[in-house]
């Protein structure tokens, strides 16, 4: 478990922010209690991730918070690529879209992810940050593959919309105007 | 041929290799002819790279120390 700690911590950090360390500790306790349920040691990483996700969900529920929830219909029509091209936030740039992305540090990306409802945030983190396949994510979350694919689709759209809103609200575009 | 709107909707699924063979071929045919959608594709690749890079980091020393201590207590 020791070698998994950094990845568990950063997954938790993205899901529950400052509660990450406590969530990992909850996960460690539960993993020790349930160790006899792990039949295949090779599946340990996914098994631990599954426990961690549930611990994070418990913490999110306890806080009963869904900040920045956006209307999905609006997000579904949103294209970050087109928005950047249309708004042209860096008029002197030859690489407008890359310049936009370069304004986002690790903490900014985590902050944007934390704006998403957990339903969409968790699969996005597992697939695009932790590198699990969609079918592995379905097993971790104990939902059908089609459900994961649908949540990934919605999650990506919401993430793009929230990236733009976050950049505007936090001066990333203004600061970079040069 | 699929429209730009259809292509953009499926870009990430295409990159994730979760589309079927027919959809993959339709996407590749569209991309071979549409410069704007190629731009959307390149942007999606960079956005995925940003997400992946944001998930990898060393754990802060003090956090690692405390978690290791908690692990020892559980052992």
Automatic annotation (TrEMBL), chain A:
Record-level GO BP terms: DNA-templated transcription initiation
Annotated RNA polymerase sigma factor 70 region 4 type domain residues: 107-157
UniProt keyword annotation of Transcription regulation present: yes
Alphabetized Pfam families for the sequence: Sigma70_r2, Sigma70_r4_2
Keywords recorded for this protein, A-Z: DNA-binding, Sigma factor, Transcription, Transcription regulation
Xref: InterPro entries: RNA_pol_sigma-70-like (IPR039425), RNA_pol_sigma-70_dom (IPR014284), RNA_pol_sigma70_r2 (IPR007627), RNA_pol_sigma70_r4_t2 (IPR013249), RNA_pol_sigma_r2 (IPR013325), RNA_pol_sigma_r3/r4-like (IPR013324), WH-like_DNA-bd_sf (IPR036388)
GO MF, one example: DNA binding
Keyword DNA-binding: yes
Residue ranges of the TM segments: none
Gene3D superfamilies, per database record: 1.10.1740.10, Winged helix-like DNA-binding domain superfamily/Winged helix DNA-binding domain
Domain RNA polymerase sigma-70 region: 3-65
PANTHER family the record matches: ECF RNA POLYMERASE SIGMA FACTOR SIGM (PTHR43133:SF50), RNA POLYMERASE ECF-TYPE SIGMA FACTO (PTHR43133)
Membership in a protein family: Belongs to the sigma-70 factor family. ECF subfamily.
Listed NCBIfam families: sigma70-ECF (TIGR02937)
Name of the protein: ECF RNA polymerase sigma factor SigR
Origin species: Streptomyces jeddahensis
Gene that encodes the chain: sigR_2
Automatic annotation (TrEMBL), chain B:
Domain Putative zinc-finger: 4-37
Top-level lineage group: Bacteria
Pfam families hit by this protein: zf-HC2
Name of the molecule in the record: Putative zinc-finger domain-containing protein
């Amino acid at each position: 478990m020791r070698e998994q700690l950094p990845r568990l911590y950063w997954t938790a950090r993205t899901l529950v922010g400052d509660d990450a360390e406590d969530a990992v500790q909850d996960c460690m306790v539960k993993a020790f209690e349930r160790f006899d349920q792990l039949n295949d040691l090779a599946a340990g990483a996914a098994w631990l991730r599954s426990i961690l996700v549930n611990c994070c969900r418990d913490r999110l529920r306890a806080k009963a918070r869904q900040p920045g929830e956006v209307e999905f219909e609006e997000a579904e029509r949103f294209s970050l690529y087109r928005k950047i091209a249309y708004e042209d936030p860096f008029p002197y740039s030859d690489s407008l879209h890359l310049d936009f992305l370069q304004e986002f540090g690790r903490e900014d990306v985590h902050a944007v992810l934390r704006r998403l409802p957990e339903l969409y945030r968790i699969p996005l983190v597992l697939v695009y940050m932790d590198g699990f396949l969609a079918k592995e994510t379905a097993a971790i979350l104990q939902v059908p593959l089609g459900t994961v694919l649908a949540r990934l689709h919605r999650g990506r759209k919401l993430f793009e919309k929230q990236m733009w809103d976050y950049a505007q609200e936090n001066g990333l575009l203004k600061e970079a105007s040069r | 041929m699929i429209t730009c709107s259809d292509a953009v909707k499926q870009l990430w699924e295409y990159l994730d290799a979760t589309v079927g063979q027919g959809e993959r071929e339709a996407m590749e045919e569209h991309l071979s002819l549409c410069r704007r959608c190629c731009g959307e594709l390149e942007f999606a690749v960079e956005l995925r790279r940003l997400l992946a890079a944001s998930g990898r980091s060393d754990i802060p020393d003090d956090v690692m120390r405390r978690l290791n201590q908690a692990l020892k207590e559980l052992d």
